[in-house]
Amino acid sequence: MAKLPILIYPSPVIRKKSLKVTSINGELQRLIDDMMETMYAAPGVGLAAPQVGALRQVIVVDPHDERKLTKPMALINPELVAADGHIVEEEGCLCIPDLREGVPRFKRVVVKAYDRNEKEVVLEASDLLARILQHEIDHLNGVLFIDRLSPAKRQLVKRRLKKTGKVSS
Ligand code: CO
User: Fold this and answer.
1) Cα of 164 to ligand 1 centre, how many Å?
2) How far is the CA of 146 from the centre of ligand 1 (A)?
3) Which of 81, 95, 98, 157 is the most buried (most CB within 10 A)?
4) Which ranges constitute the DSSP H helices of the chain?
5) In which residue ranges of the chain is pLDDT below 70?
């Protein structure tokens, strides 16, 4: 396993759409192992492949549930198939260091995906895990959490990122 460098906003790569995985082969298994190691080292509760420069529909999540009800998992070609409820909670992203903002998300989601053993999984999640899943699936479409803020709030945040020298344009 190897820890991979995480791309930092405004990298153009994290704005691209990721491609569907067509074969869960050895190379993909290695990518998943490396993504897990990178997520734990950060440390983070989720990571999407484009964040480490791999434009593939792969995410890893580990909500660090103290009761150990949720195990770390890798999801391949994840799809939001149902969602309801509405909740605003603070969120951050490994690609945008030192920024946390309240982001509106669905409270509950159902996600369909493949696991690393090529088994189809249907995952029902709420609260933190639901939020992580929505955040990471957004990454596969080139969407960042700052895009989910109100237009006024987004302007403020972009100005702040520019001021701290994290944005060149
Ligand atoms: Co993120």
Assistant:
1) 19
2) 10
3) 95
4) 26-41, 127-140, 151-163
5) 66-69, 165-169
pLDDT, residue 127, reads 92
79, 90, 120, 136: the active-site residue = 136
Q: In angstroms, what is the span from residue 60 Cα to ligand 1's centroid?
A: 11
Q: Is 91 a catalytic residue?
A: no
Taking the C-alpha atoms of residue 127 and residue 149, their distance in angstroms, rounded to an integer, is 18
Q: Which CATH number fits domain 12-163: 3.90.45.10, 2.40.40.10, 3.50.50.60, 1.10.10.10?
A: 3.90.45.10
Assess contact for 70 and 131: CB atoms under 8 A: no
pLDDT at 1: 78
